[in-house]
Design brief:
- The chain has 166 residues and is α+β, with helices and mostly antiparallel strands.
- The protein has a single domain, classed as START domain (Alpha-D-Glucose-1,6-Bisphosphate, Chain A, domain 4).
- The strands form two sheets. Strands 1-9-8-7-6-3-2 form a seven-stranded antiparallel sheet. A two-stranded antiparallel ribbon has the order 4-5.
- Strand 7 and strand 8 form a beta hairpin.
- The chain is elongated, with a radius of gyration of 17 Å.
């Protein structure tokens, strides 16, 4: 028996980094994915397809859940967007879609917006859904928050490197 948890969010940050530099980092799925917490492996399948394997959630020696999902990524340098949609593989227990939108702001800053939604199939009895679903949403939202913080730190680092090289 299992149940499905839906997760949807939108987060934005502003950086002093140029929109093209932000786009360059986010369009590189392996590079931008390296800033997401609790990723065990991110495997390129070719043609913009990436398979995500998240770290196991365990208590002691007992694995409770491990998340697997696969997405097709598309980047548009003119629109300054990176989008992804699910393309499920055998064994995937999550489906995720979303986008990055990068827009110039105040003539020198970049506004970076992440939108994503997905579902995760949880292999626990359905009667536990009311207890576990909020915890799962909270954990995922915490990981996304950390991801945005990690990217913001990288944008700042790149910005300070660029200032030193000017």
């Amino acid at each position: 028996m299992s149940f499905t948890v839906g997760i949807e969010f939108e987060r934005s940050i502003t950086t002093t980094l140029d929109t093209r530099e932000v786009y360059s980092l986010l369009a590189d799925v392996a590079r931008s994915g390296s800033f997401f917490p609790k990723v065990e492996r991110l495997e390129g399948r070719g043609n913009g397809v990436w398979h995500w394997v998240m770290e196991k959630i365990a208590i002691g020696d007992h694995v409770l859940q491990q998340t697997f999902y696969t997405c097709q990524y598309a980047s548009d340098p003119e629109q300054l967007t990176v989008t992804w949609k699910p393309c499920s593989e055998d064994g995937d227990n999550a489906m995720v879609e979303g986008s990055w939108h990068i827009t110039p702001e105040d003539g020198k800053n970049s506004r970076v917006t992440l939108r994503s939604k997905g579902t995760l199939t949880v292999e626990f009895p359905g009667f536990l859904e009311f207890l576990l679903a909020p915890l799962i949403r909270y954990e995922f939202e915490s990981m996304v928050k950390r991801y945005i913080e990690n990217l913001d730190q990288e944008f700042r680092r790149l910005g300070s490197e660029g200032a030193k090289n000017s």
